[in-house]
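Assemble and predict.
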Amino acid sequence: MPLLRVKDLVKHFPVRGGVFNRVIKKVHAVNGVSFDVERGEVLGVVGESGCGKSTLGKTIIRLLEPTSGTIQYDGTDISTMRHVELMPFRRRMQIIFQDPYSSLNPRLTVQALLREAIRFHRIVGRSEMDEYIVNLIRKVGLRVDARDKFPHEFSGGQRQRIGIARALALHPEFIVADEPVSALDVSIQAQVLNLMMDLKEEFGLTLLFVSHDLKVIEHFCHRVVVMYLGFIVEVLSSERVHERAQHPYTKALLGANPIDDPDDRRPLTVLQGDVPSPFDPPTGCAFAGRCPIAEERCRHERPVLERKKAGHEVACWLVE
Amino acid sequence: MIRRVLRSRGVRKLRQNRWAMLALGVIGLYVVVALFMLATDAVEGIGQRTGGFTIKDRPVLGMLLVDKTLDRVGPNSVPGFFLRDRPERRLEHHQAYLDAVERALNAKDPEAALAELRFGSLRPADLGPDKLRELVDEGWALFDEVDEIYEQIDEAEGQSPGGDQATAPGAGEGEAPNIADLDAAVSDKIDQIEPIVRALFPIPDGLDGFLYRLKMLLGTDRQGRSILIRTVYSIKIALEVGFVTALLAVLVGSILGAAGAYFGGWVDHVVIWLFSTFSSIPSLVLLTVLAFMFTGSRFDGTLIPLYTAFSLTFWIGPCRVIRGEVLKVKELEYVQAATSIGFGRVYILLRHILPNTAYLMFINFSLLFIGAVKGEVILTFLGLGLKNGASWGIMISQSASEVIEGRFWQISAATAFMFGLVLAFNTLTDALQDAFDPKHVS
Amino acid sequence: MPENESTTRDGEPVLKVRHLTTRFRTDLGVVTAVQDISFNVYAGETLGIVGESGCGKTVTSKSIMRLLPEEVTLIDEASRIEFAGLNLASASEKEMRRVRGDRIAMIFQEPMTSLNPVFTIGWQLDEALKYHTKLNHAERRARAIEMLRLVDMPNPEQRIHEYPHQLSGGMRQRVMIAMALVCEPDILIADEPTTALDVTIQAQILSLMNDLKTKLSTAIVLITHDLGVVAQVCDRVIVMYAGRVIESAPVRDLFHHPRHPYTRALLDSIPRAGTAHAGKKLPAIEGIVPSLFELPEGCRFNDRCPHRRTLDEAQRRRCVDVEPDLSEHGADRPVRCHYPLVDVTVKETA
């Protein structure tokens, strides 16, 4: 049984306005997304801004309320659970945020931050608390004296490590990593990614790794989910993604990445036009407006995510 | 924990700001004085309640009790810093002293009257009624001489070119007495009266003498009360009004604003409605209504009308500011992190959100403090504030008539002390913003 | 098949930076953000300045444009920025105003905050033209439209009347480029122009910039931390670290034969497309960039340098005690290292 099963998950944000604060528009952030995450897997979710990947991650751990659809964690439907029932699940599902500068409360020391969470879920008793925290801090590669410091005394990469420590403090099974290295310097990204790899093994974690950076996703994840305007357009394993990708958007995404080899200056795949508005998703395929091979059918009928091969799903009328 | 606060970046930045530290020092000074007055008031209160003792007569401890602000310490409208006033005024002052002794001497029981006679800490000399009578008569004699000289001055002025040649008894030609000489003569005579007055009311040595000089340092008002004592006492009133108003306004405003922003929905609608409505009431109308309500009631003349006016209006500022900040902070990722750990909403509001808005509360407190101090002056002027005792508002409104006569001591003293406090707070507010507000451009 | 054999270094450089040192007054003391930077920019070439946050690349570009806050910035007297007969480091504000926008233009990372939200883009393009040229209204309008067409903006006649918020991020960046090029400057400084954009939009903008390079002969100084972008677009590269230039080379040389250990470690640590390395740990650089307030005596990269392992005691001592100077290792190939890597070939493509 997969650890996480998401079915037809929808998340819309109402935009209020007008004289009586009525709902005048809706942001269609996530539009009926379904996928599974197996235990021990690292599933990557990739897409550009506005594709709904962050919203997806946050909705799965109930940081946001789903508009409709189900989220099954370890067999239990947690999509509509109330606060109290959700508590044990909160312990098992954690999140790492993108921005190291706003993800830590500036008024709490590292110790206070960790202690608060540990104590709330009664992970360890009072006498073992200190040791537990020290261990945790060391595990994420920080010095022990970090525990009495405030976030502003650390660099971006170190703050991200603290965020990771916070996520691990409750000994979770499942972590949503929302662009955890995107805000970090290049040389620090590698450090933090390595750290996450180690910790994943050590703690036996299952990860949902959200990112816009295909290179990182390919390196780090077992499988990849590609999103566009709130829809999943392709799901495939990350092995030899360049060769195996089928959906035109995935191919464009792969082709748009600048290759760091000056001898290989093939023309980058340039998609014309901009992403359509999330207020008004088009009736047909969301990508039809920019797709180099779009046909009439694509503009009127929205393609369904279908299994083309084992472990490979594509939502496109023009792919066999 | 204190060490941790002191180590935080904002506080460290504040400590480096020299003007801010100076301002804090000044405010500290004011606070210490106010506390002293509160303490002596409390002690006196206890003393009276238990009937055991009183400190009213203690020279230093009793100096700033509320009753002392109404004590006459000298003649009316004496200038400060022991400056020499105009001759007419000096005559008035000396006359006051002589009159006081004369009245006591003419009383049914001169001994008792003399024993009770006070000008601040000055008592009549212990020379016995006869000797005192002598001195008084000497004084009056000199006064008569001064009157004569004044007559001569009048004549001389009557004879000056362009003036009427109406009355000119005596020598009318050539021998025009010089007005300047006559003025000098008047001054001399007044100088002669001084030692008499001094003899009547000797300035004691030591502490009492020092205190007398201190009380006269800024002069007296129209009723002979020490301007210095009244000004310093007003510090207590100002700090009380400022502190209580600012504290309540910030607390109430912050709670409402935070609740509205965090819980949203109808709570927010109520809060918005409240501050929109209250801020739309024109202040003049509000004050007029309050004045009408309170005049003649048993709260008239207390601080209650003042507090009512402030509490209806001052909470709006902090409410808006804190509401805005909470709206922003609640979207930050560390708040989301707290949610994902499973903390309840109220816990998150109290433990994660509000402490991060604390700096705004301090800044608002500072601003409202000043607003209340200034507001007290304005409202007292309009008749809504204290009527008895002393406060800067009372002093300034009472000095209206003095200013017309060219006597600026009361209004200057009150204004100067108020200016010091307000400037210190303004500097502090600015420094707080520099140190704590990440968006503020210093 | 390299497309852009950029040896357009015929003749004098358009911009000569010599010994640029910029310091800032902060409440923790005076800090040196960039130290003794020297480089040339030649016409028609794209120079990349690469480095991580805090290395001083933005400070360098803003020093050239003199866009740093006057009250706290101290540009060293010995600094020279020679352009069009002026020394920009010491030029007056009046002289700088004539240069900015007209001869040297700059585009920034965040197009939303670089464009004034209350004016139409037509107005903003017009403004630059009005200030720097003597064209009349009709001519300026025509030029603005021409510029928008040049940056591949669809429907320029209509877009002229739109406001920044009506455009997407990619469009806004195009407008920024148009505004920058409208007076045909000699140099375009682009400070992380695509960092805030999605990768498909980035591809559009990079393609555009390559296009413009061939159409106009503007020199481009491209500041970025993305080595992929550098590989695709730049002709020469300068690598900066903690306020110093540590290596400079033609782009192929830099990627295939990096000499400075930092450059090599950086290239190694980036996850590469291609799966020979998937799932394995990345060779990461340990440690963090030194704080500019606590710079070491010797080499600034020393405590993170993986090359140290191959040195003996005496050599390591030298790295700790003495900061290396820039030394030439081949034509136009300065490296700031006591023991630079020799003939290392990197990048076996997967």
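Chain C is about 30% helix and 20% strand.
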